[in-house]
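Researcher: Next sequence.
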Amino acid sequence: MTPGIYWKLLVAYIKGSVNIEFEDKNLREMLDKNYIDSEPGETFYVNGFPLRGTTTKRFITTDGRKAFWKTTFKVLIPSITGVFGTLLALLKLLVSN
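Model: Next structure:
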């Protein structure tokens, strides 16, 4: 995972949902191919919260090689949780100062 993903996950806690997609650099080339199969992925957890609807798919083309991996994170956390977490973080900052 890249640092950008952690930033987007932080945004997810505030907004309540986020989509993150990772695609192989060969994606442009492979979009023109016909894909014949895909494999579902695993569920990810952040601080104990499941990233619901998370999918990791490997698309296989008619060429028989991996086209690309696509990972989509969908964090469905109620907005109140995101707001509460933000307020708690601000309170900790104020107390530490």
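Model: The helical segments are 3-15, 27-30, 79-96. Residues 3-96 form one domain.
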